[in-house]
Each structure stands twice: as structure tokens, then as C-alpha cells.
Amino acid sequence: MNKRAYNFNAGPAALPLEVLERAQAEFVDFRESGMSIMEMSHRGAIYESVHKEAQERLLALLGNPDGYKVLFLQGGASTQFAMIPMNFLGQGQQANYVMTGSWADKAYKEAKLIGETHIAASSEADNYMSLPKLTDISLSDNPAYLHITSNETIGGTQFKQFPDTGSVPLICDMSSDILSRPFDMKQFAMVYAGAQKNLGPSGVTVVIAKEDMITSSPKHLPTMLRYSTHTSNDSLYNTPPSFGVYMINEVLKWIEERGGLEGIRDLNREKAALLYDMIDGSEGFYRGCVDAGNRSDMNVTFRLESEELEKAFIKASEQEGFVGLKGHRSVGGLRASIYNAVPLESCKALVDFMGHFKRTHG
Ligand code: PMP
Chain centroid to CA 221: how far? Predict the structure, then answer.
């Protein structure tokens, strides 16, 4: 096999090599069916068992919280931005948002199209380079829910703790850090994530929600945009993204084999510490964009003294086999996305490269 790239893409992103190899081995003849998972009916026993296994594994990794259900949807996390207010925002209520960056902003703007909104807290004044304090969150008079973004993929911030909203449903976009660490599902009415960072290939959106939240939906909504349609049909109302669900099931097995969410968290902490230690110890050559308490273990954002130097860094890194280190086009700078499947070796190689680049350009 050719050498694998040091892949720091923000999403779609690195998948575990073990999972890719397993998928390759069973690609053309899945479970002795004489066909691939993509070629069989989603109503058949084989696909249905994969679908159910993936749902059960996901809940098991979260400690089997009572009364929650897993949906596999399409349309990306971006469609959830709209479905959430469409399904949960009633007359006379306000959709509450914590504004932490580009993704929170996109979610909020969709809610504005649907009904009344309220900004419960914001770090916009700080250019989203920090997070609002949980104690600064202030809900509206009649909140339908509070929406937060656990990890801002572009800015590189990550909530280490989540607000206690009492009886107000807490909904979280976990697209860029789901299953990267343990969390208490029971704190949330719903979490959701596009699969393409920590769970599998793009094309599947995972929703984990309290079953009573997603059992009845407003009747005027189009069928596919009602959570209740997918809940009552166990995400098999229409053709599901079957290959993606199969891949998620394999990624979940891979997480189990690494000690579940605790094991994965320890690995992720080690990877992030390597990079942040390099940045913090570089005497200002590398500058972290986010303060230590709020920075993400998934998306490490940093800058160099000038844009020219950043361009030189990216060019040199590409020549050495590093992929995806350019920051998002909206903010510039540099970003290393180190999701679950990015190996420790890739992070060590990046730290070596950063040290070398500093010695030759410092
Ligand atoms: N939320 C976050 C935090 C993201 O990082 C992204 C994608 N990068 C999205 C939402 C949008 O996801 P999708 O492309 O699946 O619609």
C-alpha cells in the first residue's frame, strides 16, 4: 500500500485505517450475500441488522440512556438547522441560541426564518475566539429550546461543560466533536451531527433525541421534514444512506475496541496536548487563536506572524505529505483537525514538522 497522508482535513476527514481495510475486505461480498451492502434492499434482513446494530452500539457507547432514539437522516447537519425550529418552535415561543461562531450563526439564521428567536449569550464581540461563560446564558421568557454548538470547527473553540437548562430542552450541534469524549446524554433533549468528521462518510446525519420530543411533529410540515416520520419508521421511511450507516457501525466498533469514549478521550487529549504544547512553547512563533480554557481538542487553530509565512508553512507542509492545514477561508490562518481517527503518529509528525519550520524560518 502507498503511504497514507498525514490527513488533517476538517471534514470529510480521516477515517480509521482499520475500518477502511475492513470495508475493503467485505466490499464486494457482504456477509456472504454475493453483493455489497450498497446493492441490497434496505428492507432486507442483512441491511436491517446493520442499521439496528449501529443504533444499538451508539446508545451503548452513551451508556444506554433511557428513552432516547437514534435516527439516521440525510441533508447534513445543515438540514437539522431548519428541522429543529420547524419541529420544536411553537407559537409564542422563542428559539434560543448561544452564538459561538460560524456554525451557531448558521443554525440561528435558519431559526429566524421559521419564528421568534433569542440570543441567549454570544462571544461575537470577541470575534468568536472565546466562548461565553455558561453563567452568562440568559434564556427568553418562553423558550422552546436552547441550541448550542459543542465545538466550533472553524474558530477552534469547544465547550468543556454544558449548561443546565432545567426543563428547557437543550439541543446540541455536535458535528465536530461527537463521540470524542464521554458526555451525559441525559443533559440533552437532542444532539445531532453530520457523520463526516467523527462517525463515518458524509451523507448521513445522526440524531439522538428523547423519544417523546420526536414522536409527534406539526402536521403542516412536509413528510420528510417531520421527525415523527423518521421516528415511527425507525429511519426507514425512505431509502436510508445504507453504505454510510454500515461505515458508522464499523467506526463504532473501532471506538469500542479503543476503550469506548473514555479511551478515545484520553487519546484525543494526548494528541491535542502535543500540538498545543508545541504552539505554547514556540516563544510566539506559533500563536494559538483561542485561550487555553476554551480551545478545542478537535480543531487546533493557530497563526504565524504574517500571511506570507502562513502560506510558506502550508506549501512546505504539503511537500512533506501533510494535508488540510489551511484555516477555513472565512478566517485564514492554520488549522489542524485532529478528529478521533487521526493517528497519534500524524500529530507527532506535525509537531516535528512545526519544530523544523520554526528553526528554518524563525
Ligand atoms: N455544524 C458544524 C459544527 C460543522 O462543522 C458543520 C460542517 N463543517 C456543519 C454543522 C454543517 O454540516 P453539513 O455539511 O453536514 O451540513
Answer: 27
Whether the CB of 201 sits within 6 Å of ligand 1:
no
- Nearest residue (CA) to ligand 1, atom 4: 175
Q: Distance (Å, rounded) from C-alpha 100 to C-alpha 122? A: 6
What domains, with CATH codes, occur in the chain?
A: 18-257 (3.40.640.10), 260-361 (3.90.1150.10)
Please give the distance, rounded to the nearest whole angstrom, from the Cα atom of residue 284 to the centre of ligand 1.
31
**CB distance 296 to 151 below 8 Å:** yes
pLDDT in tens, 273-304: 999 999 999 999 999 999 999 999 999 999 99
Q: Can you give the pLDDT at residue 211?
A: 98
- Give the predicted TM-score (pTM) of the model: 0.98
Q: pLDDT tens-digit profile of 36-90?
A: 999 999 999 999 999 999 999 999 999 999 999 999 999 999 999 999 999 999 9
Q: Which of 103, 172, 339 is the best mutation target for the ligand 1 pocket, counting ligand atoms within 8 Å of the beta carbon and taking the most?
A: 103
The residues assigned a catalytic role are 103, 173, 197
What is the sign, positive or negative, of the torsion defined by CA atoms of 299, 305, 308, 313?
A: negative
Residue 154 Cα: closest atom of ligand 1 = 5
Positive or negative CA dihedral for 49, 237, 200, 159? negative
